Amino acid sequence: RSDEQRLLITGGAGFIGAAVVRRVLSDGHAVCTYDKLTYAADRDFVAEVAQHPRHLFVQGDVCDPVLVASTIASFRPTAILHLAAESHVDRSIDGPAAFVQTNVVGTQVMLDAALAYWRDLPAAQKTGFRFHHISTDEVFGSVEAPDRFHPDTPYDPSSPYSASKAASDLLVRAWHRTYGLPIVLSNCSNNYGPRQFPEKLIPLMIIKALREEPLPVYGDGGNVRDWLHVEDHVDALLAVLTRGKIGATYLIGGGTEMTNLDLVGRICDLVDAKAPSENGARRRLISFVEDRPGHDRRYAIDASATERDLGWKPARAFDAALDELVDWYLARRAWWEAILAERYDAKRIGKAAA
Ligand code: NAD
């Protein structure tokens, strides 16, 4: 097909990356997933796509310039989507080095390799090529109501995770301004959906509620987050990739601001309705724990420019999608129980993560 893309997707075995890979494969494109397979990767997914005729899997580190360059040279992508990252804030507080390495150094390695490849492309392919960097709204730090983040909000990251992502965003812009690499950048709010690693807030709370374990909520539970379904994020990423302006930044959010306490309460009610407990309502399990250091109070995205310029809008309603997600975790006990048994860091069992 003439519109077939060849997409190199770093971090394609992770929560969001795997959703992107599934989608673009079903849209008929060719994909190379480049992923180190850290604890966060979905190995079932890698096994699932291993036999796909338009999919190539390369296990590799984004910090490895030789393997990155040879993978790009042999796959010959029409675009690179860079999602590989260390992504969990609590882990970044306990051990920031891996975050600086993967998120900052790894992004520089990807940019250098993309630039060398792009410079040598024939003119016709050169104009179509994009390096799409996938980032987070956490780079902006906390914002007080009623303000929201705009593309020109100054960066003010609070955690080692968000600081490393902020650094990576700035490198991406520098490679555009200095070397002319055709980049697009997107910053998205918190994602939720099936197959998210169970250390993140929503899966953690669903699983703990099902197991009737204490539900640890940081501080007073009043921290506000904006939630977006991962499939809506995928829609937005494909809109940015195909219709975004070179050099531009797009903010992506769900317009679903709520406090962590409100969210955990909703999860309790859903789990009660689907798996009633003899011991009473799950809300009894909510337990407030010492706040995370540097915990941003509120994230809120103004995605109106993205909606206007790219014609994208979140399509999924939060409550209905959360209801479906609880069903998903109920039906996939074996999936998450295997992760808890094999790859879950028990130290983190007491922590709430958003
Ligand atoms: P994830 O932790 O689920 O997956 C990350 C993937 O990257 C894993 O498959 C892992 O094996 C891979 N990886 C890690 N280090 C690597 C390295 N050195 N080399 C190659 N691969 C490596 O993360 P996610 O939630 O899917 O997030 C993907 C991207 O989206 C990240 O860049 C993150 O900053 C960004 N993001 C996430 C959210 C969210 O709510 N999850 C929101 C906005 C932006």
TrEMBL record:
Reaction it catalyzes: dTDP-alpha-D-glucose = dTDP-4-dehydro-6-deoxy-alpha-D-glucose + H2O
Keyword 4Fe-4S appears in the UniProt entry: no
Domain NAD(P)-binding: from-to ranges: 8-324
InterPro entries to which the protein is assigned, alphabetical: dTDP_Gluc_deHydtase (IPR005888), NAD(P)-bd_dom (IPR016040), NAD(P)-bd_dom_sf (IPR036291)
Enzyme class: lyase
Lyase keyword on record: yes
EC numbers: 4.2.1.46
Pfam families membership: GDP_Man_Dehyd (PF16363)
Keywords: Lyase, NAD
GO biological process: nucleotide-sugar metabolic process
Co-factor requirement: NAD(+)
MF term (GO), any: dTDP-glucose 4,6-dehydratase activity
Highest taxon in the source lineage: Bacteria
PANTHER family in the cross-refs: DTDP-D-GLUCOSE 4,6-DEHYDRATASE-RELATED
Family note: Belongs to the NAD(P)-dependent epimerase/dehydratase family. dTDP-glucose dehydratase subfamily.
Name of protein: dTDP-glucose 4,6-dehydratase
Organism of derivation: Roseiterribacter gracilis
